[in-house]
Amino acid sequence: MSETLQATDDVEASSEASAEATAEPQSQSKTEDLLVQEGDIAGDYLERLLDLLDYDGDIDLDVESGRAIVSIDGGEDLAKLVGPRGNVLESLQELTRLAVQQETGVRSRLMLDIAQWRAGRRAELAEMGRTTAEKVAASGERARLHPMTPFERKVVHDAVATVAGVHSESEGEEPQRRVIIFPKP
Predict the structure, then answer these.
(1) Which tens digits make up the pLDDT trace of 76-90?
(2) Cis before residue 25, ω within 30 degrees of 0?
(3) Which residues of 34-46 are buried (b: 16+ CB within 10 A; e: fewer)?
(4) What is the value of pTM for the model shown?
(5) Taking Cα atoms as reference points, which of 94, 70, 91, 74 lies closest to residue 82?
(6) d(CA 106, CA 130)
(7) Cα–Cα distances in angstroms (integers) from residue 75 to residues 54, 64, 72, 121, in the given order
């Protein structure tokens, strides 16, 4: 009889382990499904916007690093949707996030890029962050960078982290929040 109980316990333990193993992929699948849904909602919202403005653009949807990514590429008019220093792009991104939230009931972390502006800006900022960090490492003097958006600061922090002998922190209040690069003692 104890052998029967042991066998039952083994089957239950095996079932629990199997349920735990399948719960994680199902959870990841649900998260990815939600991100795909966010991208679809955002794509529809932005498609209507482009139609209202009579702008040409191709919308590409992707999921990357736990966030929905929506890109609009194409027509020459799209530069107007980026604006100076990406100000219009940031506003459109926030409006798109709100549209997604209204439909899903969940706060979105969606990232919007128009005419590959963010991709180009990311490369510029990464280079600036690396070169400034190298100067700080060589001189031993800290450097204060100009105010940046959260997206821009993250790119700079990531670039600084690749340089030995320095670290970075953000200081200040939005919209004047900036990155400070310090030499390590």
Answers:
(1) 889 999 999 899 999
(2) no
(3) ebeebbebbbebb
(4) 0.74
(5) 91
(6) 36
(7) 10, 25, 9, 19
